[in-house]
Design a protein that fits this description.
With 314 residues, this protein is an alpha/beta fold. The chain is built from ten helices and 16 strands. The chain has two domains: 155 residues, Quinone Oxidoreductase, Chain A, domain 1 (Alpha-Beta Complex), CATH 3.90.180.10; 132 residues, Rossmann fold (3-Layer(aba) Sandwich), CATH 3.40.50. The strands form three sheets. Strands 3, 5, 6, 7, 8, 15 and 16 form a seven-stranded mixed sheet that branches. α10 links the parallel β15 and β16. α4 packs across α5 and α4 crosses α9. The chain starts with a strand and ends with a strand. The structure holds NADP nicotinamide-adenine-dinucleotide phosphate. The site of NADP nicotinamide-adenine-dinucleotide phosphate (NAP) has 28 residues, from α1, α4 and α5.
Length: 314
């Protein structure tokens, strides 16, 4: 079967198409014929060697976390899935494994049935950013129409889910996006949009109850200037030191800094599936064929896309 693998850390040039045997499944695993894989920034952070502490440095390595496809085989201990089911899911340990291949062997605990009315490309776009958006909501606690929330970097996958979930809760959201994402941010529920290419959100005189820094470019120190006295700063790309120190430092300050780390649960995915059934939109703005996986990563890494970028496998 075809896979995309790499034998050293680096830019997209290290990605190679490779032939490998179809994976064998354990009795409690399923084999999925992959139809689509969505790109997440974490894929290239791992590939560039930025996560070495967690990923280790063993080669060859595969890439891609989130996938959708059709079950080809299910082990005898698997009760809830059967051959032919359309599913979406994620590889359990994206620091060691990757989904960008023709077949992937996975545990049924990280796979869910695909709603019939969304495409494989849309389904492959759900797990990492969808579950992260639900986790962000949970960290915010009670959100209502009095909650003023800033989503900094709202035009990508995470922002797409988060804005729409917040809209359903009636929150008052401001999105910071590039110029091309303004229309989408409004459509996804933003009450106001700040175009980061032309305006500086820090120089506007608005303060927020919650700031979610999806761009990784704002930072807590800057954000403090526009946080209300007891506001929350959610950081989905925390440094290891932040994870260790912020819980203690938060005890002594009003403006809290929280690391946001996601582990998708059945509960999170159920909430997303209900929202999707209720009209939450999944925008896949660019699709590449498997043969152009390198170009797909190059495109995604340059930024400027809306929602998700997907690689079709078959
Ligand atoms: N901790 C977790 O569990 C978890 C889970 C999922 C994702 N994440 C992280 O969360 C972040 C967001 O995820 P994503 O998938 O939505 O990434 P993404 O698709 O790359 O979205 C990031 C957005 O930030 C915007 N941006 C870039 N520079 C900016 C600036 N200076 N000011 C304002 N916005 C700016 C980008 O717009 P342009 O492209 O137009 O520049 C882009 O739309 C990533 O760092 C990802 O790794 C963490």
């Amino acid at each position: 079967m075809k896979t995309i693998a790499y034998k050293e850390f680096g830019d997209t040039g290290v990605l190679q198409t490779q032939d490998e045997p179809k994976p064998a499944i354990q009795p409690d695993q399923i084999l999925v014929k992959v139809r689509a894989v969505s790109i997440n920034p974490l894929d290239w952070k791992i590939r560039k060697g930025e996560m070495k502490l967690m990923s280790g440095a063993k080669f060859p390595r595969h890439t891609g976390t989130d996938f959708a496809g059709i079950i080809e085989d299910a082990g005898p201990a698997v009760a809830n899935f059967k051959k032919g089911d359309e599913v979406f899911g994620m590889v359990k340990n994206n620091m060691k494994d990757g989904a960008l291949r023709e077949y992937v062997a996975v545990s049924p605990t990280s796979v869910w049935k695909k709603p019939a009315d969304i495409t494989f490309n849309q389904a492959a776009s759900i797990p990492t950013v969808g579950a992260a958006a639900v986790t962000a909501l949970q960290k915010m606690g009670g959100v209502n129409s009095n909650s003023h929330i800033l989503i900094h970097g709202a035009g990508g996958g995470f922002g797409m889910f988060l804005l729409q979930l917040l809209k359903r809760m009636g929150a008052n959201t401001t999105a910071v996006t590039g110029t091309n994402a303004i229309g989408f941010a409004k459509r996804w529920g933003a009450h106001a949009v700040v175009d980061y290419k032309n305006e500086n959100v820090l120089s506007q005189r608005t303060t927020y109850d919650v700031i979610v820094d999806l761009s990784g470019k704002l930072g807590y120190k800057n954000a403090k200037q526009i946080m209300k006295p007891r506001a929350l700063f959610l950081n989905p790309v925390p440094k290891p030191l932040d994870i260790l120190t912020t819980p203690v430092v938060n005890l002594f300050r009003g403006k809290k800094h929280l690391a946001l780390l996601t582990a998708p649960s059945q509960e999170n995915i159920d909430l997303l599936l209900n929202a999707i059934a209720d009209g939450l939109e999944i925008e896949v703005s660019k699709v590449f064929p498997f043969a152009q996986a390198k170009e797909a990563y190059k495109y995604a890494e340059e930024g400027g896309y809306i929602g998700k970028v997907v690689i079709e496998v078959n």
